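Data deposition worksheet. Section B asks for the primary sequence of the deposited chain exactly as it was used as input, without tags or linkers unless they were present during the calculation. Section C holds the resulting structure in token form. Section D is free text for depositor observations; keep each observation to a single sentence. Incomplete worksheets are returned to the depositor.
Section A, Depositor: J.P.
Section B:
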Amino acid sequence: MVSRKTRPDTREALLDAARTLFLRQGYTATGVDDICAAAGITKGALFHHFDSKHALGRAALERWVENGRRAFGSGSYLQEPDPLKRALGFVDFAIELSRRGPPGCIVGIFAQELASTDEKLRAICAQAFTGMSEVFERMLLEAKARHAPDSTFDPKSIAQHLFVVFQGAMVLARAYQRPEIVAEHLRHFRAYLEAQFHAGGTGRPGRRSRPAAG
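Section C:
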């Protein structure tokens, strides 16, 4: 019989509990005892899998980032031959994801709480934002080359702006307890993005792309 301490799903249960609590109350306010209670696992079992709360936090952060990459890598918008429709579909995908649960992002929460005190976690957060914005930036570069080659907008800056809007909207949604704020402001960003192409080229609004089920 597999002991409770070493059963295969213990690590995942701890990561799931940590994710839920980090999203609800942040990293600093979440203690090891809170995580163990939420997971239904002893403290000894936690330390069998993770050396410290910091190690568990890092693993939860890295899993969140990887799940985000996989989610955005599964969208049907990626099949669009037109790069502008792909870019708009990327935003639509973010809008749909924002409706799936309470607002929050472990990357954003960790960056706000730990950037000045934990260089390793800060670097992971920075790389996560860089990686996602670079994916979107490549779409915008292709779309600009095809639809608005003479426009002066900066794809890199606009790609970063998407995540500024996304993260800022989640902060507002939590403050006001209105999850719909996130989708609302992402739609504002989508309209802004379309305007950049209408002002400098032949771009047309793309159809909305929904996340894959799962």
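Section D:
The chain has a mean pLDDT of 90.
The chain is about 70% helix and 0% strand.
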